[in-house]
Every structure is written in structure tokens, then in C-alpha cells.
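Suppose a colleague, Dr. K., hands you the sequence of a protein chain of 294 amino acids and asks what its three-dimensional shape might be. Before reaching for any lab equipment, you can write down a predicted structure in C-alpha cell form. Begin with the sequence itself:
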Amino acid sequence: MNTIEIEAFLAILRHGNLTEAAKALFISQSTLSHRLFELEREVGMSLIQRGRGGKSLVLTDYGKQFLLIAKRWENLVQDTKRLQSQTNNLSLSIGAVDTFHTFIFPPLYQALCEHMPKINLNLKTHNSTELYLQVDRGEIDVGFTLLDLPMRNITVQKIYTERRVVLRKEKSPNKCDEFIDPESLDPAGEIFFVGDTAFHTWYQCWKGEKGYPSLQVDTTQLLLLLLNKVGNWSIVPMCIAQKLVSMGSYSYYRLEDPPPERICYKIQSKYLNASVAEGIGILDSYLASVLNKE
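The predicted structure, expressed as C-alpha cells, is then:
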């Protein structure tokens, strides 16, 4: 099994037929078929079920399982190529949940980009659980997550907390950070922004029998699209609220029974090589000043 065979397998899936996959790889269709045949022979199982004329291609059950392996292989090849091109510079792979990347860490990344000597950055977005797995597998060097999970080979450090507030789209924005009566919020305009376990527990008690609204989202991109109607509202971390208020047409409010603060944890392996340790040390030197401004 080698890279060109994996590449052939993935190209067939991405293009849906042998003809287009062969064109994308700049090889003949017979060469592509041979590479797939060799791959199936080496793994000892059929991966793709072909219809007559090769027009219908469907993954077998083994193929579905092998697809995960093939994608990991492709990522490792890309990481290796990236490493080969960065031998003269420090490199740092940083993973974080969506909101940290978008609303809190841009000044950090800007500072790292301007650092001398140059640092090559690889930024990845994952959910909190996946970030732990990525750090444990060595696929990212440092992660910023919403969960404090006990894992043998990972150190966890609480670095940041922020309030959650009610954010509402308004024709004439009011003074922010005042208390709001929950009864003044239109239930039909609520968008639930998914949070951590503590937030969900609080929310269930706060809403009682009313339960969750009909619309729930787990990315800021979706939230911003759906909040763009006067009267729509959501309970969000302060970093999102401040950003949208600065754009106009939004106000944020406090609740008498406030939701729990959101906590950011920094995670990294307990066993760092010298290069990664140096990169994280530089990150830490900028991180404190960025968080102090929040």
C-alpha cells in the first residue's frame, strides 16, 4: 500500500467516476483502475463496488471503514510535506473551538505571525472532545477547549472565563449590560447556541417545562446568519456579544439568574519535544497579554 494508491481511491470517491478521477490525477483510466486493483489486493478486500461500465461506484462496507484510514493517511502525507518545507522555522499546530478562533484569538495569531524568528502556524477547528484526541495523538501541539477531561498524557490549564449574556437584534440598540426581564423576550425569536454541560444544566432549569426552542445551532457562522432579524435573540458568550454590538443593531443584557460562566482550558501533551516546547513558550508569552485585554 502506498500514497499513489490511496490517492487513487480518494480521487474516485471525490469525483464519483473513473473517468473524471483519472483526469484529475492526469493519468489514464486503465492506470487508475490498476492502482485501485493493487490497493484492494494489498488490503485483501473489495473497497468499491463497480457497476457495468464503471459508471456506478458504491463503497462496500469495508470501503466505508477504509475511507477513515485513507483520510488519516492523506493528512499525514500533507503534514509531512508541510514539515519538510518548514525545517528552518519553528512550527506550531493550534486547535481550538470555533468561537475562540473567531472572536478571542485573532490578536494572538497576529502577534505570532509577526514574531521573529518566523513561526509557521497551522490552525485547526474542532469540538472540545476531538481536541483532546488530537493532542493525545500528536496531531496538534496545543488546544483550547471548553472541557476539563482527565487524560493520562495531557496537562490541562484553566486560562480564561467569560460571562454569558442575552444578545438581541434591535432596531434601536439600547445601553448594554442592563438587566432584562425574560418575559420581554419573544420565545419565537430564540436561537439556542449550544454550550457546555454546565450551561445546558442551567438552561434546563431556567426554561423549565418550556424546554429548548425549535432552532438550535452549534457554530457562530450559523448563529450570526439567523440572528439577523429584529427581535431574534440568543444567550451567548460575551466575546460574541461584544463583537456584534460593535457592528451596530445589537444589544446585550444580563439575567437576574445568570448562566454559568464559560471556561477556556489550554491543553497540551505532557511529553513535548524541544521545538514544540519552544513554540508553546512563545505562544504563552503573547497569550497573557491578549487575554488581559478581554
